[in-house]
Prior knowledge:
Helices cover 37% and strands 27% of the residues of chain A. Chain A is α/β, with parallel strands linked by helices and 323 residues long. The relative contact order of chain A is 0.15.
Amino acid sequence: MIRVGINGYGNLGRGAELALSQLEDMECVVVFTRRDPGKVTTLGAPVAHVDEMAEYVGKLDVVLNCGGSATDLRTQGPQVAKLFNTVDSFDTHAKIPEHFEALDAAAEEAGTLALISAGWDPGLFSIMRVLGEAVLPSGSTTTFWGPGVSQGHSDAVRRVEGVADARQYTVPVEETVQAVKNGENVELSPRTMHERVCYVVADEGADLERIEREIVEMPNYFADYDTAVNFVSAEELAREHGGIPHGGQVIRAGQTDDGIDSAITYQLQLGSNPEFTGSVLVAAGRAVARMAARGQTGAVTLFDVTLTDLSPKSAAQLRKNYL
Amino acid sequence: MIRVGINGYGNLGRGAELALSQLEDMECVVVFTRRDPGKVTTLGAPVAHVDEMAEYVGKLDVVLNCGGSATDLRTQGPQVAKLFNTVDSFDTHAKIPEHFEALDAAAEEAGTLALISAGWDPGLFSIMRVLGEAVLPSGSTTTFWGPGVSQGHSDAVRRVEGVADARQYTVPVEETVQAVKNGENVELSPRTMHERVCYVVADEGADLERIEREIVEMPNYFADYDTAVNFVSAEELAREHGGIPHGGQVIRAGQTDDGIDSAITYQLQLGSNPEFTGSVLVAAGRAVARMAARGQTGAVTLFDVTLTDLSPKSAAQLRKNYL
């Protein structure tokens, strides 16, 4: 049984606990929180304060760092890696090499193993970008996101005056997706790749035309996209748009010979972004626990992990039933 | 530079040479053939007789066994593994554990590394079956094949009296594919999953109704499927159906929580089945050469290979640009 600690209990930590509850080879031993442990209600796992973490050394095979922000993960990462093998979902692209170096130094010194940037993007989509290029060297790789909820864009809409609540979906432009799969030389710009669809609850008496104009013209967030604004009631928003779905697809399109086209598409359609991300962190945790048990130390990514280590099945079972 | 030998020069061997010609970190040093080397025309690689293989020890980092049949690969496998690190595309499902054991014994004794069952199925699809289950443990995995040419079924049609030539396409039933992605409880039988579409050139004066009846009623090959028979001219067959496209998709559909559905789809659309398979063998060859250089011996599968070993890029490049 692989003994797992979850560090941080927001949507992602809860998703990881949910994933662990479905497994027979891994168990959630403890959830660490910065809040008052008595006030955190888990799905069943015991709760401890982060300050008690050191008391769990020797009792956990891996800790999943489920901090809510990139800042959390950057500060927590090296600290936790001094005590435990770790997994995180660090996704601030430009800072990945720096984060890797910090974790590598801390983990090497402590003799632990730290896997960074697990999840679906970065994570599974990263795997597909590398795999696609390895098996189809002449071609190009394109990533589309959605349909799914973007928290950052939803927050941006909520900041518009007169908006009581809002939800923003990022939606890939199907025409462009098809053109990319067909290997057509299509323009790839924000507007040709993704549409933005907003569901907005306005304050009573608010000027709806102004709200719509302010949204669609908002720089960075919406101005470079075709944006649809739909005004709905608070009840409809809660009823129809209460989930946190997401997904996307990575397409590798290329040629094995002149005029011989191939396309590789990896698509995710996720009912709950944090639940699925939590589930990927758990699978990565399994691999980290096994690799660490074989003596591996330092920082790694999913690029350094084999399928055999990710799977609960034995190598012989995998060969017999999955090849 | 990773030095590669190709053993066997049919469609697959040619596909592997074509893939190698697009790479900067690998080169095709020699093609081995059972035929008269003077009569084999490659894309540029030197040709030697298989009996001369031992002379190449020390000159090749990996040999890609591109034998045309499962029988070839079973007999060649252990012999070649005594001399070189190897990769094959062994795909007789029931015999995989046995083939693995034979290669493992031969390779361990010789101190070489042998990777079996590379390609797309087995191969990339196998990876997706394991990965899908690891990251979405509660669910089911379904594989659809096509649209693509099935050589076995094309041959079966050609054996019908009065058929001069034929090409058979396996086509997934789109309605069933969608139902599986949606997590619906749909019946999965030969008929609900795949259709068979035949293009047939009949001998002059042949009884077309009888030919069609014999095809659609043929046990094992067609009787369990909805089969369409289209009679065409030899010219049309050559013009419209001369390629060897194939592909398919692996779908993992499941739930991260009660009522929260997720679907993971990996789809291949391949202009040339043997060219793409050859390209996968080459990527596997890169990994084998690197793993063997680190001292690994015995038999492995793609389940035991990291993305870092499959890719021509360095680990730091991958972290910086692909995560």
